[in-house]
Design brief:
Two copies of one chain form a homodimer. By secondary structure, the first copy, chain A, is α/β, with parallel strands linked by helices. Chain A is 37% helix and 20% strand. Chain A is built from ten helices and eleven strands. In chain A, the strands form three sheets. In chain A, strands 7-2-8-1-9 form a five-stranded parallel β-sheet, sandwiched between helices. In chain A, helix 5 packs across helix 6 (154-167) and helix 6 packs across helix 7 (178-190). Chains A and B meet through strand 1 and helix 7 of A and strand 1 and helix 7 of B.
């Protein structure tokens, strides 16, 4: 079993993921928001690569059960019902709904990895459940950090390292690459206080500046759910 | 003064570097080889982005004083005089010569960063000299790791972290990004024994398999020279 980590989607093209088992991480905030939406009863999340495509496919084909959600550069997109704060995705609002979702880094990373044989979404919120499932699955894994506009995101990298560390137990013969070794090292150095980490990273700082500080607390909650989002047929649903 | 680190050239396009002060690192082996060639009296190194371009521009325009050097996937290119082992670039062979140089990761990273206002080449061999010069220069810095075919290379990342750490002294007010914080963390974890590090990384392992183990020792030598390669007018020369 081999685990590799990509620190940004620009490190690979779409076909790289063909047939692979891929885990997309976007701690701040797409992964955490998708997990929250599914926890709160959303039927499915449909990730898209452009805002234009989000608008195009939401035009009535889901019979009024569709919501548009997401952000561009942290801010809710004009005309969208929801932004990218987990706190907006409450039971009242999302239960039973299909949510077409765009975000600057996260949704685009998911779309890029769409040819994966298995495609999961992970954040600190479902870390242990995700690790347990991957251990059972016993396939080679690519962890795809959504990053920050092609740059490394420390919160995604630390989360990736925590996932590698959780899987890399004595009963598994794990082959680590330079990248997965680097991720474990970052996890060991930065994971003692996840909320503090999130408040000090480049993207965390931007979110605080733009008024989203309260989101950091939700995104920092470790193992708050066992929901595993699974992408299949262009939509993300809860893995059964 | 801000220091950023790119772990792979794919994280940016060519124009990103316009006007910037950039340091390219390719520990195994392009940086170390270029430094060795200049130490041993080469007139200049002309880095190129393709093998075809190397062959094209070496056709006589330098009046017989040109050598072709470099590798593709670690192996010397057919028809080239030199590969990418520092040990090949001896005084006897390179003194006074222009060397047209291609390598899988390093020369392409240098060419990508060609619009930089200042463009330097660094490895463990000239780490302290490079840091001292950058401290004097006092400009924002982008450290560009050549990486390993779009993936993170642990040896380049650790070298980048050592450079950041060496510059980040008390008398400098350095702004660190997620990436430069990550690089410092990797430096702290992996730099105790550089030769051991090089022998365990993905690319180090490949070099050992392909018979280049002796190169690792040269590439692991810390501060063996004060030569700083500087790119200007399409050629790399010793910074005076």
């Amino acid at each position: 079993m081999k685990i590799d980590v990509l620190f940004s989607p620009v490190q690979s093209d779409e076909l790289y993921f063909t047939g692979k088992t891929t885990v997309v991480i976007d701690v701040l905030r797409a992964s955490s928001t998708i997990i929250t939406a599914l926890m709160n009863g959303a039927k499915e999340i449909i990730p898209v690569g452009t805002v234009e495509f989000a608008v195009k496919i939401s035009g009535g084909i889901f019979g009024g059960q569709t919501l548009l959600g997401g952000e561009r550069n942290t801010i809710k997109i004009e005309g969208f019902a929801l932004g990218n704060s987990p706190s907006e995705y409450t039971k009242d609002i999302v239960s039973g709904k299909s949510i077409v979702f765009y975000s600057t880094n996260g949704s685009r990373a998911i779309v890029k990895a769409k040819y994966s044989a298995n495609l999961f979404i992970c954040s600190f919120n479902n870390l242990k459940a995700m690790a347990d499932h991957l251990k059972k699955l016993n396939e080679d894994i690519v962890i795809l950090c959504s990053g920050n506009n092609s740059f490394l995101s420390l919160e995604d990298s630390v989360c990736a390292g925590m996932l590698v560390n959780e899987i890399n137990t004595e009963d598994k013969a794990i082959v680590l690459t330079d990248s997965s070794k680097a991720a474990i090292t970052l996890f060991n150095s930065f994971s003692k206080n996840i909320l503090k980490l999130l408040s000090e990273t480049d993207h965390g700082q931007l979110l605080i500046t733009n008024g989203f500080e309260s989101d950091l607390k939700t995104c920092a909650e470790l193992d708050s759910t066992e929901v595993i989002p699974y992408y299949s047929g262009n939509a993300i649903k809860v893995l059964k």
